[in-house]
Amino acid sequence: MRRRMTKGHQVEEESSPSTEAMEPEPAPAPDAGSAEPQGGAVAEEDLAGETGHLQSEFDALNDRHLRLAAEFTNFRRRAEHEMTEAWGRAQADFLRRFLDVLDDLQRVSALDPSDEAVSLQTVVDGIDLVERKFTRALEEASVEGVDPSPGDPFDPATMEAVMLVVSSSPEDDDTVDQVFQKGYRFRSHLVRAARVSVRKNE
């Protein structure tokens, strides 16, 4: 504060500007609870967007998985149905080959022995016809006979030895002596082994 003289010799005191008034007022502190930091809000938005994107991809993959599973189930059912149908047709075709044989057997069994026109030769011819038809039907079905002859080497893979016959000749050792029953093979599978007697040298 400074003094100055006026015309009436009065002294006025003149205040100098306060140093306190010259100091800037501090800015009010931001209210921490009024708003969240902008960076955190952006991060949450990015996370929400990424989560939604991943959920969409998961839903698409899950839908594709369900459709593929349904298609595979339908394919398996169709394959099983087609296999069953094919097996049924093969069996029907196999059995159809023997229907003519059955018809011939029924004709032979229907012959009247008291009929003078029916002779023993007629019956034999009928049975022979049935045998030829039956054999042909087996061949058409890929069934072939295993019919060894006496003197053939014994084959344990296709023959069953039901009897041993002592032989004095070394050359006859392990050879077929007699055939009691033919064997049969269906393609590469042995259906029944031929039953034979086998010579053994002692």
Element-by-element helix/strand order? EEHHHHEEEEEE
- Individual helix count: 4
Order of strands, main sheet, comes to 3-6-7
Computed structural class: alpha+beta
The total count of strands amounts to 8
Largest sheet: 3 strands, antiparallel
Low-confidence stretches: 15-21
Percent helix range: 40-55%
Global mean pLDDT: 82
Shape: elongated
Instruction: Quote the distance from N terminus to C terminus.
Output: 156 Å
CATH fold group of the domain at 143-202: Nucleotide Exchange Factor Grpe, Chain A, domain 2
Radius of gyration from the alpha-carbon trace, in angstroms: 55 Å
| Relevant CATH superfamily of the domain at 143-202 | Head domain of nucleotide exchange factor GrpE
* Text of the CATH class of the domain at 143-202: Mainly Beta
CATH architecture of the domain at 143-202: Roll
Tell me what portion of residues adopts beta-strand conformation. 15-25%
Written description of the protein model:
The structure is a single chain. By secondary structure, the protein is of the alpha+beta class. It has helices at 19-22, 38-96, 99-109, 120-140, and strands spanning 2-5, 11-14, 143-146, 159-167, 175-181, 183-186, 189-192, 194-201. Strands 3-6-7 form a three-stranded antiparallel β-sheet. A three-stranded mixed β-sheet has the order 4-8-5, with no helix packed on it. Strands 1-2 form a two-stranded antiparallel sheet. A hairpin with a 2-residue loop joins strand 6 (183-186) and strand 7. The longest helix is centred in the N-terminal third of the chain and has 59 residues, at 38-96.
